[in-house]
Amino acid sequence: MKQILTFDSFEPLCRVMTPTKALRPLRLMLLHDVEVWNNDKTKKVVTLPEGFISDGASVPNVFHIAFPPFGMYLGAAFVHDYYCDKANAEGNYLWRQYGDDRFKGWAKQCGVSTVRATPMGQAVQSYGKYLKLMGKLK
Question: In 1-138, where do the E strands start and end?
């Protein structure tokens, strides 16, 4: 079975993963392939594979009150995590940069206001550039 979702209606069938000390306390695993389309359904953004795991938004704990890991921007976080994983698997920073550059727009499609989406997008881009600078991404 495949789910076809848009950012503004992103409610994939998931399983909560068992927390580990090495990973964030909460992670979600997709139970089916999920096609993600833009909100007007004119462009497919990506197909997330069954079994794909996301930790939601990787927000430092101190900011969880304002930006919880799993909020209305869950679709943006899942798609961004997919591109981060692709960058890591292929050793190609351009996939990370692609996801970073589009995160703000994806968050806005999820219903996040521009006032909130702008700092979120800037934080995502800054962290990606930091990882590249530190040599953790190629």
Answer: 2-6, 14-16, 28-30, 33-37, 44-48, 53-54
Q: What angle do CA 126, 105, 64 make, to 5 degrees?
A: 55
Residues 6+ apart with CB under 8 A from 66: none
Quick: pLDDT tens for 49-85: 999 999 888 777 777 788 787 889 999 999 999 999 9
Task: Report d(CA 32, CA 59) in Å as an integer.
Answer: 26
Cβ(48)–Cβ(34) below 8 Å: yes
Tokens of 83: 């591109």
Dig out the tokens for 34 from the structure: 């999920």
In three-state secondary structure terms, 119 is helix
Whether pTM exceeds 0.85: yes
**Rounded CA separation 100/125 (Å):** 5
67, 76 Cβ separation under 8 angstroms = no
Token pair for 60: 């430092």
Q: How far apart are CA 51 and CA 14, in angstroms?
A: 9
